[in-house]
């Protein structure tokens, strides 16, 4: 008999683990506390406090909850202020007020595309939602025509959202707390192990192209998660800021390892005729040391093995006689690789034990493309305009729900790829479909027969919320839980003065379902830009950064920070295209490699720089960027070798060659070979 496998949602609901049960229990307590405080303070709509608390249940680690609460409150305050400002100018002109609100929502959606951290994205979503709530509720209530009434409505919306955020934050801190520190340690350990496996694969002559790319993709994905979480750990006690800096350094140095490893791995694969027996032995020794470091059971053992590798490489380098310039240069690159690995291990150790000697490093930056922001902003504005059009034509209060919640989901989900987004929205819609009958049964069938006191509200609503939170606890089932909990709250609308009206509840349910359906089809029609267009823009951004390296105080940290998410996006586009050659990902790593080579060149000639060298260096750097883009189009650029020769002459004219400048010729030759190989690859594609 074949094994029966439960659907992930059913497995999550029927066989939850202890961590999931605790998560759901904390969520129910958070929402119950938010409802109690809101009712005690006699806020107008306590259910918005519950909605606020629901969103804070996503990622329950204490630091992340604090960060999201601060983002939620600040976004709500800004949105409420903008709502008041719009009404101050356009209250007599409702169409102009809605047009201004549409513009504000679009701007927030566009701005959210310029950040990657989910909590910061949520701040923009709250800013747009709160402004919408203030303006629409004032326009829907003819009695709210004076400034005092407008301010009261804005204050109420901000107060409700703030109460929900603070209650969720309090429960997160006091009951079964989960810390970002533990998550950082796990992600850091995973990314180090993945990197060591990748290092050994790159140096393994029998490894496949697909194996190497699978490991590189996993490393990039984990790095972005680690980078996003590093900002939240700063809220976890006095050691938090130090752990945040250690995580940033670890991410940055892993990027350096990826760059240098690509150099070491590609050279023997693509130019075996240039590899000497001594260099082959060096590569084999490096690979065996990487395997031993990965198998070590403690930080001390890993660190000892890394230091042993560094000493072995220095001995190899000292023993070289009559090696070519390019092999001598790559031997120095191997020493630099191990130095970066040592810093990665030290940064990992600093996540638990303070290390004041670690240098600061740039965080991985979000790739900010105004074109992506414009598409996201336009799409969210269209979602809102459709809802506003329905509201103006029908005057139905249910259309308010149709205008508000789809805007929030449009902003929060915009960063996902179309394939992932389609699945998430389907699951969200299914959650809404289930929430409607459950809300009508509990809201009208049970609560209408109760006294309406807080105790009865909690007793009746705890069950549905608990099941919804079970689904919310895990990423695969999260859209189901979110699609259930938020609509369930907005249909039942628990509070001090519940109406128990079948018509109101049904119309709200219909409005939410129609709104989510509109959101789904707008995302299907206004899709993200074509992958080839975005890949070209990513490469052009990399080329611009190559020309700006010389103006940076800490160029390696700066360049790593800007290339992290850029590489992940290229990898995602490549995966989406189904092209097994993964040439765009390779080209992204080539950009990372030559950027690092350019930075190392500057270190080697720092004692040779004068006005003439600086002129030739600026010229060479521009030719480097141009050659990179030309090779991506399958064209060779003879000007690169010419510019390299002119720069080399200027360096030697400035000062006698020394140990630092001896390998520059090999560096130029390796880059020239890389560009020629890349051009041939793309010429054949």
Give a description of the structure.
The structure is a single chain. The chain is mainly alpha-helical. 77% of the residues lie in helices and 0% in strands. It has 25 helices and no strands. The protein has helices spanning 8-14, 18-40, 47-55, 62-90, 94-112, 118-140, 147-174, 180-202, 209-230, 240-270, 277-295, 299-319, 325-350, 370-394, 398-413, 418-446, 454-472, 478-492, 502-525, 531-548, 555-577, 583-604, 611-632, 639-654, 664-684. Helix 6 (118-140) runs antiparallel to helix 15. The relative contact order is 0.10.
List keywords for this structure.
single chain, 685 residues, mainly alpha, 25 helices, 77% helix, 0% strand, elongated
Summarize the structure.
With 685 residues, the protein is an all-alpha fold.
List the helices and strands and how they pair.
Elements: H1 8-14, H2 18-40, H3 47-55, H4 62-90, H5 94-112, H6 118-140, H7 147-174, H8 180-202, H9 209-230, H10 240-270, H11 277-295, H12 299-319, H13 325-350, H14 370-394, H15 398-413, H16 418-446, H17 454-472, H18 478-492, H19 502-525, H20 531-548, H21 555-577, H22 583-604, H23 611-632, H24 639-654, H25 664-684
Helix pairs in contact: 2-3, 2-7, 2-17, 3-7, 3-18, 4-5, 4-6, 4-7, 5-6, 5-14, 5-15, 6-7, 6-15, 8-9, 8-10, 8-11, 9-10, 9-21, 10-13, 10-21, 10-22, 11-12, 12-13, 13-25, 14-15, 14-19, 15-19, 16-18, 16-19, 17-18, 18-19, 20-21, 20-22, 20-23, 21-22, 22-23, 22-25, 23-24, 23-25, 24-25
């Amino acid at each position: 008999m074949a094994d029966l496998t439960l659907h992930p949602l059913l497995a999550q609901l029927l066989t939850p683990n202890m961590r999931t049960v605790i998560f759901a229990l904390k969520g129910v307590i958070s929402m119950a506390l938010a409802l109690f405080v809101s009712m005690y303070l006699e806020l107008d709509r306590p259910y918005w406090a519950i909605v606020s608390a629901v969103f804070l249940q996503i990622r329950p680690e204490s630091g992340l909850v604090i960060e999201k609460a601060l983002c939620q409150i600040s976004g709500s305050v800004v949105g409420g202020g903008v709502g008041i400002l719009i009404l101050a100018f356009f209250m007599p002109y409702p169409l102009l007020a809605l047009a201004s609100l549409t513009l504000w929502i679009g701007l927030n959606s566009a701005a959210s595309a310029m950040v990657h951290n989910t909590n910061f994205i949520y701040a923009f979503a709250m800013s747009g939602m709160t402004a919408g709530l203030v303006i629409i509720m004032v326009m829907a209530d003819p009695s709210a025509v004076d400034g005092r009434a407008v301010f009261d409505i804005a204050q109420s919306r901000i107060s409700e959202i703030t109460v929900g955020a603070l209650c969720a934050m309090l429960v997160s801190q006091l009951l079964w707390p989960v810390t970002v520190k533990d998550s950082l340690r796990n992600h850091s350990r995973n990314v180090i192990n993945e990197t060591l496996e990748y290092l050994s694969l790159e140096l393994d002559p029998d490894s496949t192209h697909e194996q190497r790319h699978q490991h590189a993709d996993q490393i990039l994905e984990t790095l972005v998660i680690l980078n996003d979480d590093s900002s939240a750990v700063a809220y976890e006690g006095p050691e938090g800021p130090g752990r945040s800096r250690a995580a940033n350094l670890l991410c940055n140095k892993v990027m350096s390892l990826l760059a240098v490893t690509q150099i070491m791995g590609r050279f023997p694969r693509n130019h075996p005729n240039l590899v000497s027996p001594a260099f082959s032995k060096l590569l084999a020794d490096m690979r065996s040391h990487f395997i031993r470091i990965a198998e070590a059971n403690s930080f001390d053992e890993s660190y000892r093995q890394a230091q042993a590798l560094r000493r072995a490489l220095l001995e190899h380098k000292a023993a070289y006689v009559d090696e070519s310039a390019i092999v001598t240069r790559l031997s120095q690159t191997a020493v630099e690789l191990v130095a970066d690995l040592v810093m990665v291990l030290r940064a990992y150790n600093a996540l638990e034990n303070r290390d004041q000697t670690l240098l600061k490093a740039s965080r991985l930056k979000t790739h900010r493309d105004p074109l992506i922001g414009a598409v996201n902003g336009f799409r969210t504005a269209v979602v809102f305009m459709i809802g506003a059009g329905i509201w103006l034509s029908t005057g139905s209060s249910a259309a308010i729900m149709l205008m508000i919640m789809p805007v929030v989901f449009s902003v929060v989900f915009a960063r996902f790829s179309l394939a992932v987004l389609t699945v998430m929205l389907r699951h969200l819609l299914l959650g809404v479909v289930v929430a409607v009958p459950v809300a009508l049964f509990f809201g009208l069938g049970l609560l209408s027969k109760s006294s309406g006191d807080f105790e009865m509200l909690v007793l009746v609503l705890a069950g549905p919320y608990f099941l919804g939170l079970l689904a919310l606890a895990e990423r695969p089932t999260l859209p189901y839980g979110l699609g259930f909990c938020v609509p369930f709250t907005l249909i039942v609308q628990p509070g001090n003065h519940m109406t128990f009206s079948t018509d109101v509840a049904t119309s709200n349910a219909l409005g939410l379902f129609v709104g989510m359906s509109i959101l789904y089809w707008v995302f299907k029609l206004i899709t993200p830009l074509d992958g080839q267009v975005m890949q070209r823009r990513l490469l052009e951004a990399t080329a611009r950064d190559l020309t700006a390296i010389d103006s940076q105080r800490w160029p390696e940290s700066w360049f790593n920070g800007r290339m992290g998410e850029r590489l992940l996006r290229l990898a995602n586009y490549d995966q989406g295209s189904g092209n097994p050659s993964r040439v765009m990902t390779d080209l992204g790593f080539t950009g990372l490699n030559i950027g690092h080579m350019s930075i190392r060149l500057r270190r080697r000639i720092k004692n040779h720089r004068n006005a003439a060298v600086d002129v030739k260096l600026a010229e060479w750097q521009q030719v480097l960027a141009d050659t990179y883009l030309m090779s991506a189009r399958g064209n060779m650029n003879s000007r690169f070798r010419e510019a390299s020769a002119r720069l080399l002459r200027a360096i030697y004219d400035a000062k006698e060659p020394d140990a630092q400048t001896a390998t520059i010729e090999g560096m130029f030759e390796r880059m020239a070979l890389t560009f020629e190989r890349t051009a041939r690859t793309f010429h054949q594609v």
